[in-house]
Amino acid sequence: MSTTSAFQIFSSLRYDPALPAETEQPATAYPDPRESPYYLLQYHRDRLLNAAREFRWDQAIEFLQQDAGPLARLLDTHIPDTSKAWRLRIVVDCNGVCVVEVHPTAPMPPSNLLVPIPSLPHRLSSPDDIWRVYVDSASTVPSEFTTHKTTARDGYTAARQRTGIDSPAELAEVLMVNPEGEIMEGSITTPYFLARNSGSGQESEVGLTPRWITPPLASGGNAGTTRRYALKNGFCTEHRILASELVDGEPCWLSNGVRGFLQGVIVLKDHHK
């Protein structure tokens, strides 16, 4: 297990002043703190803490053991304009030093941050908002650097380059594949696929039988915040899925801590570039 300080752990999340009001809508099972403009704040703190424990960074563990309240107050000091949405990147090193990077982010309906459920339809402004989802042509070996979000991201960068994705602004994603041919995750998102017959009988944590499945952590992917949210709210269940099972043109969902839940389509036959 690596203990080097050559990398940091991080988590990216959205600040959105409209979020607290959206979580008060009926049928939105959203975790506390519900009143926070920081999207899934407690989940981001948990994710960072779990990573610090994995790497045995005692000072980082001590810093991250604070609850969401003090963390939110720290983040507040970095928000340039509380009337706008922002993308935050919380970076923590092995000494427990925290750096918060803040960048502008595109506006979007706050409802897109809520897990998709039948009684609260997800809105898209146009078909052009659907992401193109490709499959990496090479495999990635799972490690603590795929299980946890760190700045050691050469494998993810290489996968995007192989696919021809040049900018994070592109509505394009590449799915990482482990040496056994299993889908691990997306390069910047958690993917969700239509349940195959072999997985459609599983129940979620809330006793539902979801229509969607997401790769289990055993396949090597990241324990994402929106992934945790989707599982706890019955949107999906975990199930191993092979890259060879995917069908060109099939719908999928993607999610991450800045953009929420996004609709995508699997692209197998056409090259991106």
What does this structure look like?
This protein starts with 8 loop residues before the first strand and ends in a 7-residue tail after the last strand. Helix 2 packs antiparallel against helix 3 (58-64). It has two domains: 9-108, D-amino Acid Aminotransferase, Chain A, domain 1, CATH 3.30.470; 127-266, Alpha-Beta Barrel (D-amino Acid Aminotransferase, Chain A, domain 2). The model has no long low-confidence stretch (mean pLDDT 89). The strands form two sheets. The chain has an eight-stranded mixed β-sheet with strand order 6-5-4-11-10-7-8-9. The protein is an alpha/beta fold. The longest helix is centred in the first third of the chain and has 15 residues, at 41-55. The chain contains seven helices and eleven strands. Helix 7 links the parallel strand 8 (212-214) and strand 9 (236-238).
